[in-house]
Amino acid sequence: ADLSNGTVSSGLNQQVQDQLAQAPTQYTELVDWVREVAELTEPESIVWVDGTEEEYDRLAGELVEAGTFRRLSDHEFPNSYVAFSDPDDVARVEERTFICSETEEAAGPTNNWRDPAEMKSLMKDLYRGCMHGRTMYVIPFVMGSLDASTPRFGVEITDSAYVVCSMRIMATIGSDVLKKMSDTNAFYVKALHSIGAPLEEGQQDVPWPCNPEKYIVHFPEERAIWSFGSGYGGNALLGKKCYALRIASAMGHDQGWMAEHMLILKVTNPENKTKFISAAFPSACGKTNFALMDPTLEGWKTEMVGDDISWINFDENGTPRVVNPEAGMFGVAPGTGWSTNPNAMRAIAKGNNIFTNVALTDDNSVWWEGKTDEVPDHLIDWQGNDWTPESGRPAAHPNSRFCTPLNQVDMLAEEFYEPEGVPLSAIIFGGRRKTTIPLVSEAESWSEGVFRGVTLSSETTAAAKGAVGVVRRDPMAMLPFIGYNASDYFRHWLDLGEKHGEENMPKVYYVNWFRRTPEGGFAWPGFGENSRVVKWVFDRLEGTAGGEHTLMGTVPTREDLDLTGLKIEDNELDAALAVNVDEIEAELIGIDEWLEKFGDDLPQRIHEQRDALAQRIEEA
Ligand code: PEP
Ligand code: NA
Ligand code: MN
Description:
Blueprint (H helix, E strand, L loop, with lengths): L13 H8 L6 H14 L3 E4 L4 H14 L2 E3 L9 E3 L13 E3 L4 H4 L8 H12 L7 E9 L8 E7 L2 H10 L1 E2 L1 H9 L4 E7 L20 E5 L4 E5 L4 H4 L2 H17 L2 E3 L2 E6 L5 E7 L6 H5 L9 E6 L3 E5 L5 E4 L4 E5 L9 H8 L4 E3 L2 E3 L4 E2 L11 E2 L5 E2 L13 E5 L16 E2 L2 E5 L9 E3 L3 H9 L2 E3 L11 E3 L12 H15 L6 E5 L19 H12 L5 E3 L2 E3 L14 H8 L3 H16 L7 H16 L1
Parallel strand pairs: 1-5, 3-18, 4-9, 6-8, 8-10, 13-25, 25-29
Antiparallel strand pairs: 2-3, 5-6, 5-7, 9-10, 11-15, 12-13, 12-14, 15-16, 16-24, 17-23, 18-23, 19-20, 19-21, 21-22, 26-29, 27-28, 30-31
Helix pairs in contact: 3-6, 12-13, 12-17, 16-17
Bound molecules: phosphoenolpyruvate (PEP), sodium ion and manganese (II) ion (MN).
Manganese (II) ion binds next to loops.
């Protein structure tokens, strides 16, 4: 990194100089970087984060003191805290997110791009002195297992204790990581974060300091992250979206692996046979619920390996192996409840949570829309105002979050702890579509599966700003997370199939839990009943389930699905499974519009898949 401005620094106080001299590592390259950042940002002091519980408790106590955290009553969520953010710092800021590759072309048409040198110069001006009056924390972390053959290290420098506490839940951090990194002089991703709120002499702090000017910036060639101005999750916990998706996708492209926005399920059939499946869904499609599903089908078991991110490597036999690089969940609270997601609730009920922007109850616990069927009579909403059911506004912010350690999930598969991951049998793409997309279908080949991913779509919901019910394309559910040119990303997927061979690649499925009947109701009950779809997928992989060839690949007939004990009307099931030529013909128009965005860069193999679909429509 080239953070220094060429002048001899004079900004470091004696305390910081001592803390640099007493760094708990001999890794001089790392200490040099920390010094460079300190010279630029001029913190009051430096803390080398050790990752211990004592440290967490101390920092949480300081956050309570500062008004950032409120300690909750232990009766419902032991050892848990709630934070209320600045109302303008509640979500990822995609319009302020940049991929600063050497060339604009390398960032592609789906990312914001700025020249890296220009961006660095602009951001250095913002970073200069930005940690005045604050502690600079140095967090050594590893994504995935420290025992992996290639541990994926990072170091986040941040001036936010909220970030330190959250990172301790979301990743493996601290002294052991630093030791292994230092002993092996390992490569690590440099992840620099500041809330951008210097505290000058005598200045009063606020509970959630941040800066109205925000930058979430990635330098993919350098594997570096520079984040400024926000304290919120995806903008500030840099191991997650910034590293494990954007930077890791670029690393995977160069190194022959994949970093994907996918949950991971372990499925066990009644004969005790197991398979692992990853699944990508755009937001607001019930991804967390699917990851934590309770099957309704007798004898079938699902366990969670991951709820958000899949890293897929290929072993020496070409077998794809998937790991969840994270150690915690940073889940959307609203809609997570005892009736819809009891497994998530049981994990949260064990305590050790950091909640953000949920509502506060009169007995010093927290509540959010959908947590319980019964709505409390009185709350303090996420903005600190009195709230009653008559208030006519949500009590919790729609993007309020729970941050919870994964090892508290009862249904966490033991294979979560496998350093090199588990064999991946299938990839499921899902979206929210009222029409067109059947309940489940199987792509005929890897290339067709990639085409399905490239054209993945979902209808917008009230969860995000803007019009509701509009079909948006979200390739592989990675639109905001592809750290380089999307056409190259599609090509990488196709190339991996050619390299490792069809027989090694996961089979690709497409699901839609949200199809409507002509009368407008949901055609499929969803939730635990989705286990019937999982069973069909499992049995297809085993070669024991039937299906019908359609325009959309192989789709089960009603006889091919296990509907034992399911209450569903004939017209509902028909609607769920229907493949209508007219709808798919209309879909092709939307697909063509989408593919145009990529111009001549789009791989020819994607054009071929598109033409094959057009041909099938013509013949139908
Ligand atoms: C986030 O916003 O920090 C985040 C985890 O994003 P998402 O829930 O959209 O995956
Ligand atoms: Na941890
Ligand atoms: Mn996500």
